[in-house]
Every structure is written in structure tokens, then in C-alpha cells.
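agent> Task received from the user: take the single chain below, predict its 3D structure, and emit C-alpha cells. No templates, no multimer pairing.
agent> Plan: (1) validate residues, (2) run structure prediction, (3) serialize to C-alpha cells, (4) report one or two observations.
agent> Step 1 OK, no nonstandard residues flagged.
tool_call: predict_structure(input=
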Amino acid sequence: MTTTTPATPATAATAATGERADLLVALEKQRHFLRFTTRDLTDEQAGLRTCASELCLGGLVKHVTSVERMWADFIVTGPSAMPDFTTWTEEDVARRADEFRLLPGETLAGVLTEYAEVARRTDALVATLPDLDATQPLPKAPWFEKDAVWSARRVLLHIVAETAQHAGHADIIRESLDGAKSMG
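)
tool_result: status=success, residues=184
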């Protein structure tokens, strides 16, 4: 069994204390588990599906990167940071599906680098955001409660949960790929 210690949050965020530090540690732990599932893989392996799902490890990293970027932007700019889900076309759905796979020309190293950059920006936001209680109205979407408003804190908890969920998916995919496990 191989284990590693989660990395410390990005430099801009190391000054965070209290609740902010707790949020950053929780987020970094889940990011670590997601990244760890990709250790020692080739681009080809990172793009392989190992189960009935469309998911692959490189695609999961791309998806989590996109989701974290979108939600962090939502904290700052509100619903305009998100697509208008009520008007999605078939092309929008296809673009979204591409988020879950490594496309020709994409590399695991490239998607991990992009993920690290998004993580640094989110960490800096958490460390410097004036108020975790600041709210934004959610955009219209079939999966959002009508007229719901989320605080920055709730959005950050959602990012942690989303990352954790996909880190679990990644662990299953990796174990199916070559028997490697993140834990246990």
C-alpha cells in the first residue's frame, strides 16, 4: 500500500485561519485523493474507461477543474458565471460530455496543471473573500431549488463535496484499471 500526505494549501491561502483554514484543508485533502489516483499513468491510461460509465481519470480531473472554476467564479460574479442551463442545445450537451474524457491533444499533465492553477485561484479566493456569508442567487436549472440563494460558504462546501464524490469515482476507476488503490 502506498500512502502520501496531502499537500498544504497554496501559498496565498496558508495565512487563512479558523473556518477558512478548515475549508481549505478539507478541499486540499479531496484534491489530493483525486490527483493521487492519476499517479504514474500514461495519457492513454488516463483516458481509458474501465467500467460501464463514460468516466475516465483524465476526464474526471477535467470535470472537477471546470466545476471548481465555475463555482469559484459564481461566488464572485453570481449566476452569470454559469451557463443558462434552461436553454442548452445538443451542442452544449456534447461539449459537456467532452469534459469527462481526454480529447485528442490533451494530456494528463496538462489537465493536472490546469487543475493546480484553478486550485490556487480558489484557495486565494477563500483566503481573501471579505465574507463567507455573502450570497448569490442560483441560476435557473432543473436541479436547483427555485429562487435559491447560496452563501460563499455553502458553495465552498459544495466544491468539497463534488471533489470528494469524484475522487471516489476516480479510486474505483483506477482500481479497475490496474489494481492500484488510493486508500486501504
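agent> Step 4: summary for the user.
The two ends are 7 Å apart (CA to CA).
agent> Done.
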